[in-house]
Amino acid sequence: MASAVGLDLVDVREVADSVERFGQKYLDRCYTPAEVAYAMSAPDRVTGVRRLAARWAAKEATIKALDASERGISPRDIEITRARDGSIQLELHGPAFAAAQAAGATAFAVSMSHQGDLAAAVVVAHKGTRASRIRWKR
Amino acid sequence: MNDQIRAILKEHGRLAVDVASLKDDSDLYEAGMTSHASVNVMLALEGTFDVEFPDRMLRRGVFESVSAIAAALTELTGGSAP
User: Fold this and answer.
1) Is the pLDDT of residue A137 over 90?
2) Domains by residue range for chain A, with CATH
3) Fewest CB within a 10 Å sphere: which of A77, A93, A119, B47?
4) Which of A10, A29, A70 has its CB closest to that of B60?
């Protein structure tokens, strides 16, 4: 099975600055309501911003894995969710879903991390006929 | 228009070089702008030019240079932007 990988690194301070400068407009354009709610449920503001930064990194890593930077994908079209067992999953919507189909991606693996002022994510897009482990929504 | 774009890039683009040293067609990503910084640039452009970038324009190429941004704004404003 062929695979493609995407990696992204984000300075958490940049995300904090965006929240400070643009507020709800920034949140609405970049994250889904569920992602914002999860970040806002953090025990403190710093942890919440780190959660946003990690999610931004995962969105960018997904675009890189799909080689889809010119497809007109909203950051909200790539949603990072948590399964009941705590594992991270991708939900792709609209153009992101179409990009995954065009790339032949049938399953994804995603990992996120944040430490101090840095947040990072790696996304592996598996291409083949195996049953998808992700939840896709149009 | 390009002067306003350059002012926004200076404030929000997090460029590694002085924006004044860049040509209108210089690659802003090569100059240090990250994808996240490009979102800040977009939000600042929307506020300054009273436009909204539709999802179809959320492409790397739209924000890759001063000229590309100007072309996008011209499309969004129907050529009425200063």
Assistant:
1) no
2) 2-136 (3.90.470.20)
3) B47
4) A70
Instruction: Dump strand ranges (E) for chain A.
Output: 2-11, 78-82, 88-92, 105-115, 118-127, 135-136
pLDDT of residue A138: 46
- Is B48 near chain A, with CB under 8 Å? no
Using the structure block, give the residue that is written with the tokens 């210089």: B26
Instruction: Enumerate domains of chain B plus CATH numbers.
Output: 2-12+22-77 (1.10.1200.10)
pLDDT digits (tens, 9 = 90+) for A97-111: 999 999 999 999 999
Give yes or no for A65 touching B (CB within 8 A): no
Query: In terms of DSSP H, where are the helices of chain B?
Result: 2-12, 35-49, 66-77
CB-nearest to A26 from B14, B43, B58 is B43
Report pLDDT digits (tens) over A34-49.
999 999 999 999 999 9
